[in-house]
Automatic annotation (TrEMBL):
Keywords: Signal. Residues 1-20 form the signal peptide. It comes from the Bacteria. It comes from Fodinibius salipaludis. This is DUF5683 domain-containing protein.
Length: 196
């Protein structure tokens, strides 16, 4: 039992003192006084996408250092896969963010063989991918391109809903960790709330 309690404390990064009385919220509770804006969510999503891809490709193209090139390549992958979801994450709408990110991740995996055609030889060599010549009009490539584009559009279009739900307190699901006393020791208790 003690190992389980220590594991949860480590997992969530939360430490409680013996006299802790406050509740720590992982997800925002149903109502909050702090408002979020669609323009800021869109700005975060576009910045994380465009800046990550642009600086990553530049690092691969302009530097000969292997570490900088690998960092740039992974930064580009982050921009493609995760960048557009950061706007939803800003509005604490994790399901929509993960759906778009998942679509782009699958699309990116399908597009691995087109890395050389899209980003060039240095980029493909940095990641050690794309050993064959393919056409961007191959069926697998078209599906990958479609998934990446659809995931990006989905996240950008869903920002209004994500922000509105956050501002109205319209979350149907909330997870909280609160301290409670178990055998004279303070331990975190995970609680979930579902609103219909």
């Amino acid at each position: 039992m003690q190992k389980t309690i220590l594991f949860f404390c480590f997992l969530f990064g939360i430490s409680f003192s013996a006299d802790a009385q406050s509740e720590v919220s992982i997800n925002r509770p149903f109502a909050s006084g702090q408002q979020k804006t669609v323009s800021k969510a869109r700005s975060i999503a576009l910045t994380n996408t465009v800046l990550s891809i642009g600086s990553g490709i530049s690092a691969v193209a302009f530097f000969d250092n292997n570490t900088i090139q690998k960092t740039g390549a992974y930064l580009t992958l982050y921009g493609i896969v995760g960048g557009a979801s950061t706007g939803n994450f800003y509005a604490e709408d994790y399901p929509r963010g993960v759906i778009g990110m998942g679509a782009r991740a699958v699309g990116t995996i399908l597009m691995v063989d087109a890395t050389r055609e899209v980003f060039g030889h240095r980029f493909a060599n940095t990641l050690n991918v794309d050993n064959e010549k393919v056409s961007l009009t191959d069926t697998k490539m078209l599906i990958g391109e479609g998934l990446i584009l659809a995931g990006f559009i989905y996240n950008m279009m869903s920002l209004n809903t994500s922000v509105q739900e956050y501002n109205s307190g319209g979350r149907n699901f909330s997870i909280n960790v609160a301290p409670t006393v178990v055998d004279d020791k303070v331990a975190p208790v995970l609680t979930a709330s579902l609103r219909f």
